[in-house]
């Protein structure tokens, strides 16, 4: 692979817009002169294996509970409010610490940061496995997320440290495949463990394998980087920015949870204050980032381009929508259709397999043609159609309708994992590339967390007793409960379909970069996909 040039072409060298057929990825400043530490072939392979094993387990925990949650809910008597937090606590904490771990690794070193984050992930897994209440489980998931977020972002950074520029695309591709496989088999493993053994093995499984990876990294990982002075490094972090965005998000989410879970009436001062304070704090975050932050988490200048705004909108809406499929389809399969956890996981295959395939095919098409806008439009259209078909799902098993809807939604969802980032990379200045990728990952994670809560809001009021994980044993009441589930889910899917339409409209405003398709950088595409998925 040819390394991207670090110098920018002059204005006269820019290609004519009329001759363009696609879009080019602008070269990323990756330090082409950087010399990675020398490693023997066996050592390099073992390090990569350890990193991939860690990534696999962290990614697995994103989806493994999708089919196990109903079983967990019955055993721990999880309420509707707690049901949402079991999922969102992991994704929210993972997202919150992503920028922090990246900066901390510059201060204390990559190896110490990687070992610490891995240890946190293992500690959280143990807490979850031993959980005797929903509160303990949510706490364990939060600790898991604090460690898992560090592991995933540090793996991306370490690949850049360990390998020369020409080899990084290959290793980013490997980690992308690992992440995709983990996401695909997570629901199946969750179903197998919860039905054949116990749901606690969803967390116990992390300990021996993560322990092996930790030992491998301790003895084999050798990374020498120029560390920042501790005090200067800590001062450079945007602490007020972190406080604003995390505090505002938690206030807003908890307000939604309190109103939807019956903790307080929607019109109560408690709920209204939480929602208002959340919005106000998030607004203060934007003001702080724009006017006062020296090293902003999200530089406001990256939103000055219409294409950038549209690409962020597509990416964030995509995250908001696809996570609902992972969490609420298994709920529908088990509670309404009566599927076992294993069958529920297998029933997700028509969604997950096309999603994984289209991710790779979409990236290949963009690398060959450079036309990322067309792929984004096709993906948004397919997602709108597929999610729209979910609205018609009822209390009866209608296999053709279900499979067709999942396949269409999966094909559309897959091509939207990396291509919005590719669009961003073609329009962002060199000096803003790293900040843009960090903001991209951070915002997508937040939208995932919010989506789980919002989806619950739509269906909880139609469920008997506020319990999302079971129906009444009384036959008549059970049918009423199922009808309530279906009614709530239909309203929820209609809402997500409307968001798909908004995503499609946003995609129209993405402008292709007028350069030759042959100049698309495959490395940048691989980095985009990995950054998105982490």
From TrEMBL:
UniProt source species: Fusarium fujikuroi
Family assignment from sequence similarity: Belongs to the major facilitator superfamily. TCR/Tet family.
Keyword Transmembrane tagged: yes
Protein name as catalogued: Uncharacterized protein
Subcellular location per the Swiss-Prot or TrEMBL entry: Membrane
A Pfam match: MFS_1
Gene3D superfamilies in the cross-refs: MFS general substrate transporter like domains (1.20.1250.20), Multidrug resistance protein D (1.20.1720.10)
Transmembrane regions: 46-71, 83-102, 114-139, 145-164, 171-197, 203-225, 237-256, 268-288, 309-329, 335-353, 374-393, 399-417, 438-459, 491-510
PROSITE patterns in UniProt: MFS
Membrane topology according to the record: Multi-pass membrane protein
Keywords recorded for this protein, A-Z: Glycoprotein, Membrane, Transmembrane, Transmembrane helix
Residue numbers spanned by region Disordered: 1-24
A GO cellular-component term linked to this record: plasma membrane
Taxonomy, superkingdom: Eukaryota
Principal subcellular localization: membrane
PANTHER family per record: DRUG TRANSPORTER, PUTATIVE (AFU_ORTHOLOGUE AFUA_3G08530)-RELATED (PTHR23501:SF102), MAJOR FACILITATOR SUPERFAMILY (PTHR23501)
Listed InterPro entries: MFS, MFS_dom, MFS_trans_sf
Coiled coil: none
Keyword tRNA processing: no
Compositional bias segments (type: Low complexity): 1-13
């Amino acid at each position: 692979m040819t390394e991207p040039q670090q110098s920018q072409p002059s204005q006269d060298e820019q290609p004519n817009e009329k001759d363009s057929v696609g879009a080019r990825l602008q070269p990323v400043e990756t330090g082409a002169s950087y010399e990675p530490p020398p490693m023997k072939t066996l050592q390099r392979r073992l390090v990569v294996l350890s990193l991939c094993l860690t990534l696999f387990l962290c990614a697995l925990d994103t989806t493994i509970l999708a089919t196990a949650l109903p079983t967990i809910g019955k055993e721990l008597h999880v309420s509707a409010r707690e049901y949402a937090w079991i999922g969102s606590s992991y994704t929210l904490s993972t997202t919150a610490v992503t920028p922090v771990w990246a900066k901390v690794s510059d201060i204390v070193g990559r190896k110490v940061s990687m070992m610490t984050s891995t240890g946190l992930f293992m500690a959280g897994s143990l807490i979850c496995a031993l959980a005797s209440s929903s509160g303990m489980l949510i706490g364990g998931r939060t600790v898991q997320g604090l460690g898992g977020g560090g592991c995933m972002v540090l793996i991306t950074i370490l690949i850049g440290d360990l390998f020369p520029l020409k080899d990084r695309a290959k290793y980013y591709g490997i980690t992308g495949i690992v992440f995709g496989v983990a996401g695909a088999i997570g629901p199946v493993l969750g179903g197998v463990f919860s039905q054949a053994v116990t749901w606690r093995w969803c967390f116990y499984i992390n300990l021996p394998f993560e322990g092996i990876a930790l030992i491998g990294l301790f003895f084999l990982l050798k990374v020498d980087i120029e560390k920042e002075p501790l005090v200067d490094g800590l001062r450079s972090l945007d602490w007020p920015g972190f406080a604003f965005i995390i505090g505002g998000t938690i206030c807003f989410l908890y307000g939604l949870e309190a109103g939807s879970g019956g903790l307080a009436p929607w019109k109560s001062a408690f709920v209204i204050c939480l929602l208002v304070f959340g919005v106000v704090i998030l607004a203060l975050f934007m003001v702080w980032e724009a006017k006062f932050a020296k090293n902003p988490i999200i530089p406001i200048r990256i939103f000055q381009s219409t294409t950038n705004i549209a690409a962020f909108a597509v990416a964030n809406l995509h995250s908001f929508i696809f996570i609902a499929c992972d969490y609420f389809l298994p709920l529908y399969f088990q509670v309404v259709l009566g599927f076992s956890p294993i069958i529920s996981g297998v029933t997700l295959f028509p969604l997950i397999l096309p999603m994984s395939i289209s991710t790779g095919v979409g990236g290949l098409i963009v690398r060959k043609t450079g036309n990322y806008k067309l792929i984004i439009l096709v993906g948004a259209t397919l997602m709108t159609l597929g999610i729209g078909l979910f609205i018609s799902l009822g209390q009866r098993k209608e296999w053709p309708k279900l499979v067709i809807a999942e396949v269409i939604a999966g094909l559309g969802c897959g091509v939207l994992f990396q291509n919005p980032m590719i669009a961003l990379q073609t329009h962002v200045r060199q000096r803003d590339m790293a900040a843009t990728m960090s903001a991209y990952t951070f915002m997508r994670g937040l939208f995932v967390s919010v989506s789980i809560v919002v989806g619950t809001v739509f269906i909880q009021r139609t469920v008997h007793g506020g319990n999302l994980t079971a129906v009444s044993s009384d036959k008549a009441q059970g049918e009423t409960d199922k009808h309530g589930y279906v009614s709530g889910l239909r309203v929820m899917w209609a809402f997500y379909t409307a968001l798909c339409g908004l995503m499609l409209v946003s995609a129209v405003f993405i402008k292709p970069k007028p350069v030759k398709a042959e100049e698309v950088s495959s490395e940048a595409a691989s980095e985009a996909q990995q950054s998105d998925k982490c």
